[in-house]
Amino acid sequence: MLKQTTCNHLSAITNIRPATEYVCDECVKTGDTWVHLRTCQTCGTTLCCNSSPNQHATKHFLASHHPVVISAEPGERWLWCYADEQMAAY
């Protein structure tokens, strides 16, 4: 059997949902700061990455089970699947 190169979650993405705002709404609520932003490809929420103190994007995945995010950083064009821990360029 051949090893699958891209997980089903990443393969299912046909349209990229870009960030509409470049802030972590959860960090804004608490007055915290973030390092980088990620945008959920299921609901479009933009939250902070794992390098940020609060890791809101990962918390969103754990609560919602929305598996795929994109980097919301200018010039970065990649997706990450939390469920399968896989990355893909777009």
Question: How do you describe this structure in short?
Answer:
Helix content is 21%, strand content 21%.
Descriptive account of the structure:
Helices cover 21% and strands 21% of the residues. The chain is built from three helices and five strands, in the order ααββαβββ. The chain has helices at 8-11, 25-30, 56-64, and strands at 37-40, 46-48, 68-71, 78-81, 86-89. Strands 2-1-3-4-5 form a five-stranded antiparallel beta sheet. A hairpin with a 4-residue loop joins strand 4 (78-81) and strand 5 (86-89).
The N- and C-terminal alpha carbons lie at a distance of 27 Å
Instruction: Point out poorly predicted stretches.
Output: none
- Supply the CATH class: Alpha Beta
Q: Give the strand order of the largest sheet, numbering strands 1, 2, ... along the chain.
A: 2-1-3-4-5
- The proportion of residues forming helix, as a percent range, comes to 10-25%
What composes the largest sheet? 5 strands, antiparallel
**Rounded Rg:** 13 Å
Helix/strand order, N-terminal first: HHEEHEEE
CATH superfamily: Zinc/RING finger domain, C3HC4 (zinc finger)
Number of strands: 5
Tally of domains: 1
| CATH third-tier fold name | Herpes Virus-1
What's the shape? globular
The assigned structural class equals alpha+beta
Number of helices: 3
Strand content: 15-25%
The chain-level mean pLDDT equals 94
Task: Indicate the CATH architecture.
Answer: 2-Layer Sandwich
